[in-house]
Amino acid sequence: MSCSTGCRQNIANVINCGEPLATKTSSYRSISCIQLDLQDPFNMLSAVAALSLLSMAPALRASVTPVQRCTGTISSLDDVSNAVKCTTINIESFTVPAGKTFSISAPDGATINVKGTVTFGVKAWSGPLFELSGKDITFNGNGYTFNGQGEQYWDGLGSSGSTKPHPMMKIKSSGTFTNLVVKNSPQQCFSIGNDASLTVSKVTVDNSDGNSSNSKSGGKPAGHNTDGFDVSASDVTIENSTVSNQDDCIAINKGSNIIFKGNSCTGGHGISIGSISSGVTVSGVQILDNTVKNNQNGLRIKTDKSASGSTVSGVTYSGNKISGTTKYGVIIDQSYPSTLGTAGTGVKISDITFSGTNTVEVASGAKEVEVNCGDCSGTWNWSGLKVSGGSAGSSNYKKISGFSI
């Protein structure tokens, strides 16, 4: 296309003479190629349009954020600021200085590959140790380990004892997060707070060292409040992962469309919804095909006695296998932090279902099922629940079908 004839065809091409405006920013400052007869009204308008576009050029350039198709490597915190300019980020082995957060704010669509062990230095501070944000991020742990050195903090008291950084892993990204080993979190391990769909899979939370006592724990297990996954977000799937710890395997605090599937939970407090505080909604939760071994509780819903304005609804349990439970196989309790005390009435619970086959085997001194409702409604179908091993327990809610307590 020639300058003398082509620009008339498209005012948006006046500056670049046939090239789209956004593809050649170097032409924004030159209109030397324009050859117009200003006696022609159309050409007069074209010239005005061209000058208007020129005046907008700085703003147009400022609005374009370049994406660098490069690979950035992180082997110290000093590398992060440059690495996050790239769409591929590799994390090599290194030690994060004590008292510092390893924070990655990745560009949209980035891929992050872990290439070695990351160890976090020890200091009494609030944390978190690691933070990830970004949209549609692919995080590949490749079987490597993030080591929080929790054994250096543990005192058997968790949040009631010395200051410990928590959570260890603060995940605010959407996309996928896979195949990472997280060892010895000082307190809570994962905090999930994504703002779009996130799938976590093949992750190992290994706080098993906390089962033993140490010089600070007074004969008790040293690890405490070491939750595996704390979820406060919607559109979350956690699957095919393993948690060994001393607190909830997962605690769902708020959110909707949450799936916890095919996971293994050992040694902690079981699979929990809650504790539920004021002004939150939990809905559309599926707890599917999980294995829970040697936990205090198997499946639990707990709501704060003093909470108000909250709801828990649409919770389905299916295909779960619970064994070795020492306190309660299934417990729904609206008196938290008490256990089976006077129930609060500020959280509405409805549509709690056991479908398929859920087998719950408890120790001889444990209760199989306890239901302590303050504000429960609707008929709950529990035909998919089978319990054995302990005393039956009790329920103050009479609209449970397909199962007798």
UniProtKB/TrEMBL annotation:
**Region annotation Disordered: where it falls in the sequence:** 204-231
What chemistry does it catalyse, as a reaction equation? (1,4-alpha-D-galacturonosyl)n+m + H2O = (1,4-alpha-D-galacturonosyl)n + (1,4-alpha-D-galacturonosyl)m
**What are the UniProt keywords, alphabetically?**
Cell wall biogenesis/degradation, Disulfide bond, Glycosidase, Hydrolase, Repeat, Signal
- The answer to keyword Disulfide bond applying to this record is yes
Query: What are the positions of the active site?
Result: H269
Example of a GO cellular component annotation carried by this entry: extracellular region
Which molecular function GO terms apply here?
polygalacturonase activity
> Source organism's superkingdom?
Eukaryota
**EC id:** 3.2.1.15
Identify the Pfam families for this entry: Glyco_hydro_28 (PF00295)
Q: Supply the SUPFAM superfamilies for this chain.
A: Pectin lyase-like
- Indicate, by first and last residue, each region the UniProt record lists as having compositional bias (Low complexity): 206-219
List the GO biological process terms: cell wall organization; pectin catabolic process
Q: Which PANTHER family does UniProt cross-reference here? A: POLYGALACTURONASE
Q: Which family does it belong to?
A: Belongs to the glycosyl hydrolase 28 family.
Q: What is this protein called?
A: endo-polygalacturonase
Please tell me the species this chain comes from: Rhizoctonia solani
